[in-house]
Amino acid sequence: MSEVRLGIDVACSAAHQASLADETGRFLWQGWKFWTTTAELEKLWAKIPDNVTVVVMEPTRNAWVPLAAWLGAKGACVSVVPPEQSADLRDYFNKHTKTDRLDSKMLARMPMLHPEGLRVVDNLGPAEPLKRAVRHRSSIQKRRVAAAMRLDALLELMGPGWLDLFGTVSYGKTAVAVLERYANPHASRRLGRSRLAKVKVLIRASRGHWREDKADEILAAAAESLELWAGGGLDFDELADDIAIEIRLIKLLDTEIAALDDRIEALYEHGDPAGIVASAPGIGVPLAAGILGRTGDLNRFRSLAGIRAFTGLVPTIDQSGIDDPQQRTNQTRRSRATPCPVPRR
To answer: pTM score > 0.70 for this model?
Structure first.
């Protein structure tokens, strides 16, 4: 049975466009517009003859996922153009055809023009809950780091003692609890040493580890800030309000991260019931879930080399029979490290 190739120009807020070509690249029809609805997809499928159907599309945001799922369920072999290759092709066509899109006609001819540039869809990416949860957690963690860095910058206004006291970026529960209420140096001084050491929020958050000694450090940092800004120029009340905003964001993000950790652990146990990924030395459940969520089904790789290439962590050697870039680099480093001899007079 012959093969037909359906190229789909996926759109996010407009109608998709599809073109159908045979094995020789001759178009059977082109420019068919449709939306991601069952009725529209049924009309599209009715236009395709009873041949082996290869569908080619770009993984445009998440709009490609329901199309790939529906067409795959119909028996089509769905392939996508990897993002890095589609970017190169877009650059080429933008130069020669004044368009930055891979249109449906080009995609329909991809299996003939550049078959090695296609990747068969073996998972639905964002539709898989573990992969989505892992990526979501990574995104929230980045936002948490951004909020902590803004908090660093605010504390720097009061003086270096505050960063030495609470650390930077990490900001555990104790630091968050204290800064939310006592970031204003005036508030800390009004409490005094004995009252500050007995504050319930300080004792509970630190589980009893922060008492008189830590109260002394807080008061010392407060005194330094007040002395540093004795001439005016900094409104401590307003600054404390800004610090409280970042603290509330950090607390909210920490809550979401903790909830995601519970979800991810349950999803990982379902995706890897034998715990194969977590059995590797030095890998616990959180990291194992991240690895499995990012890579998907490991059985789709033919060899360990394929997994290494997918991660991008294993370097490759780019050399020919007469050219070795690594050797050139080493020679350059040696020449820079070896001083030139000083001529004798």
So the answer is: no
